[in-house]
Amino acid sequence: MSNATATPTATAPVETIRIKVDSRDVDVPKMLPNWQGRLEPTTMLQAVQIAGGEVPHYCYHPKLPVAGNCRMCLIEFGTPMMGPDRKPVLNPDGTPKIARSVLPYEPSTPRGAIACATPISAGMELYPSSPATRQMREAVLESLLINHPLDCTICDQAGECKLQEYSVEHGQSASRFVEAKVHKPKAVNLGPRIVLDDERCILCTRCIRFSKDIAGDDALGIVNRGSYNTIAAWKEGAFDNNYTLNTVDLCPVGALTSRDFRFKMRVWFLKETKSVCTSCATGCNITIGSREGVVHRYEPRENDAVNGPWMCDTGRLNYRWIGSEARLREVWVGNKASTWDEANREVRIRLSKAAPGSVAIIASARQTTEELYLLKKLATRLGAITDSIAREGDPDTLLVSADRNPNANGARLTGIAFTEMGIQIPKIASGIASGAIKTLIVFGEDVTQHGIGVDLLGRLETLIVSDILPSQTTQAAHVLLPGCAHAEKRGTFVNAKGRLQKFMKAVEAPGDARPEWEFLHDWVHAVSGRNGFSSIEGLFNQMAREIPAFEGIEWGRVGDLGVTAKI
Amino acid sequence: MTKVVERKPLSALERTYLPSVVSGLQVTWKHFKKTLLEGKPVTMEYPEERWVVPDGYRGAPYLVKDQDNNTKCVSCQLCEFVCPPKAIKITPPGPDGQKADRTNAEKMPEDFEINMLRCIFCGFCQEVCPEEAIFLQRDYSLTGGSREEMVYHKDKLLQLGGVHAGAQKWKHKLEEAKEQEEFPVAKI
User: Fold this and answer.
1) In the predicted model, what is the mean pLDDT of residues A489-513?
2) Which residues from B are below 8 Å from A183, CB to CB?
3) How far apart, in whole angstroms, are the C-alpha atoms of residue B79 and residue A162?
4) Cβ–Cβ of B180/A260 closer than 8 Å?
5) In terms of pLDDT, which residue wins out, A440 or B184?
6) Which of B92, B97, B176 shows the shortest C-beta gap to A265?
7) pLDDT above 70 coverage of chain A, percent
8) In the structure, what pLDDT confidence band is assigned to residue A6 with cuts at 50, 70 and 90?
9) In A10, A54, A239, A263, which residue has its Cα 20 to 30 A from B135's Cα atom?
10) Which residues, other chains included, contact A225 with Cβ-Cβ below 8 Å and sequence gap of 6+?
11) Residues of A in Cβ contact (< 8 Å) with B78
12) B188, A182: Cβ pair inside 8 Å?
């Protein structure tokens, strides 16, 4: 992203201005990065935030152009008074006299300024919690609620709605509006993934600014005048770019809602787990919303080093497979359901019999770095040839990467795959055909789709497969081990730019499925005779010590936003 | 502070226990007279005859319908959230679920379960309900042959709950919208 790199350098001294926020002196930088990362004069809203306060707002968003139309961030302020000689007027005690901003024709009435778009100046005083500011907020909120349908009971935004939150702080318990409300279209088909309720809209235009300036698709606008103002797409259902669902997150009220999440679960029931999207090598940071073992939605989690506050619709909606009915739940040895103990024993016996050079391992670049590291350890011990499957697609200019594997760089760094991923697959195929390779270990890939057909799999003496969903490869397996989706275990991915990011467990795995690193750890222990670590933290730290690119990184220091590996 | 209750020693007459026997017999005789001669028994022939509970009694919570026979519940799940013993479980309709009875209410539960074995009849669900869709009613004797039978589902709850005529805000909104001179953009 363009704004990810443009943070001001720490070396240049930052020029600051001294202002007063609620009669407290605060030094704030004169300039701050705007939504594009370019330096612009600091606004009142940013200054209050730096002072530790908060100015309620709807239309302002740090990553969108400033529009200043909701008026919620109005605050009272004052500037140093100037005499006719252009010198500051002083109080008897020597402090500069402050002129509070008032209406020119009505000097007893304070005149507020919208904090999101008004730059600060030296000596300015801001009063974000003065009675006049509070009154302005209450009046603005009351006017925003005039035509609001107050249908929180059926609104998907309830629980994460700014209108609800500010109503608690600045609202009134009863409406003074006795006239009939203006009724606007409801459940409008704005696009294939977006439902719009025009009655709930407060016309902040965040969605319009996002789709025009961030997604580059000028599909939305406002039609009609006055209280008939209505958000609309240029044609019904035409709001269909790959970033539309970000407007659902942006919408401060319940006007734009996700068709996928519509009426599915109230948000206050959702457990939020920090995770990473697996749909491409960008590795957008996400929050998984789950309840009672069911994943209900993904939401982007802000990380300026990776995805900013956005994510693509494809990645966001790619979660249903986690709760699929078809998931592998049982351990199979031969043709019958078995137990983990028996399967691990079988694997140990088969691998100990395998001659060096007769084993191949096809891992998946969708696996965690820790699992790939353990597989590489196993491969070294067995003298096995390893590779992974490349997955390509069309990139876009915002987030989507051409590499559709979430951990291709993890596979490269652990030594599972070469820079050109999949280059070894034909060699493995010919090795199986010639009989040189007798044992194949496959993790998370359907190799029958990638040049190793069912006939070749039939020639193997041993085929050990671990996967999440059934495929032709899992059907041919001699030992089949049910694995976990990323939402069911912990681990790390290395994205296309070398950002090492960890993800947490959101839900329990179905049936007997176990995280791959747990049983891989058992196998490595069995063939190498050395015990490693039985926790993901220990395993990661061991891996970080052995792989040069991860030098100096520890699990505890990776943090929620990840660290950059040296690739 | 401890209070010492003084226990007087029994008198000679009291130690014969005759006064107590007599006063006991007086009570028995009073009820005998009331039941047999005046026809006013103090007990009931319970399963056949049932006690009529007073107003405000907190019996089993049931779902109610409005005067137009529409489901009032809109599946907001506040009762599920507030329920202290977690007796309520609502299955929301989801994006492709059944349409609500009242068109502009948009939403109603696909299933609504109350586990009557878990329910403590506290009335929080009735208190929190923004739609006046659930009420603690007069049923106090709930029986069933199995645990599953004691989990009441939506249809049963609606059938037992009956009708509660109240303010019909969704209908009112629809009428208000219809009265409005036609909206400039019909539907984009």
Assistant:
1) 96
2) 173, 176-177, 180, 183
3) 23
4) no
5) A440
6) B92
7) 97
8) very low
9) A263
10) none
11) 153
12) no
Instruction: Work out the average pLDDT over A185-199.
Output: 93
Q: Give CA–CA dist A34/A62, Å, rounded.
A: 7
Q: How far apart are CA A343 and CA A463, in angstroms?
A: 12
- Tell me which residue in A183, A224, A233 faces B180 most closely, judged by beta carbons: A183
Which chain B residues contact residue A262 at CB under 8 A? Answer: 94-95
Q: Is A233 on the interface with B (CB under 8 A)?
A: yes
Is A16 buried (19+), middle (13-18) or exposed (0-12) by CB count in 10 A? middle
pLDDT of B52 above 50: yes
Residue A406 burial (C-beta neighbours within 10 Å; 0-12, 13-18, 19+): buried
Q: Where are the beta strands (DSSP E) in A344-434?
A: 359-363, 385-388
CA-nearest residue to B169 within chain A is A151
Structure token pair of residue B26 = 């007086």
How confident is the model over A22-64, as pLDDT tens digits? 989 999 999 999 999 999 999 999 999 999 999 999 999 999 9
What's the whole-number average pLDDT of chain A? 93
Of the candidate CATH numbers 3.30.70.3270, 3.40.50.1820, 3.40.640.10, 3.90.550.10, the domain formed by B61-167 belongs to 3.30.70.3270
Mean pLDDT of B90-95: 95
What's the gap in Å between the CA of A393 and the closest CA on chain B?
30
* Span A331-564 CATH architecture: 3-Layer(aba) Sandwich (3.40)
Q: What is the pLDDT of residue B44?
A: 87
Segment A71-98, tens digit of pLDDT = 999 999 999 999 898 888 999 998 899 9
**Structural fold of domain A152-157+176-323:** Alpha-Beta Plaits (3.30.70)
Instruction: Identify all chain B residues contacting A261, using CB atoms and an 8 Å cutoff.
Output: 95
Q: Which residues pair with A361 in a beta bridge?
A: A386, A441
Q: Do B180 and A180 touch (CB under 8 A)?
A: yes
- CATH 3.10.20.740 residue window(s) in chain A: 2-144
| pTM (predicted TM-score) | 0.89
Residue of A183, A199, A236, A317 best to disrupt the B interface, most CBs of B under 10 A: A183
A36-50, A125-139, A221-235, A493-507: least confidently modelled range: A221-235
Chain A CB contacts of B184 under 8 Å are 223-224, 228, 230
**Would you state the CATH architecture of domain A2-144?**
Roll (3.10)
Taking the C-alpha atoms of residue A206 and residue A68, their distance in angstroms, rounded to an integer, is 11
- Residue span(s) of chain A under CATH 3.30.70.20 come to 152-157+176-323
Q: Where are the domains of chain B?
A: 21-50, 61-167
Question: If 0-12 CB within 10 Å is exposed, 13-18 middle and 19+ buried, where does residue A533 land?
Answer: middle
pLDDT at residue A13 greater than cutoff 90: no
Pinpoint the residues of chain A covered by CATH 3.40.50.740: 331-564
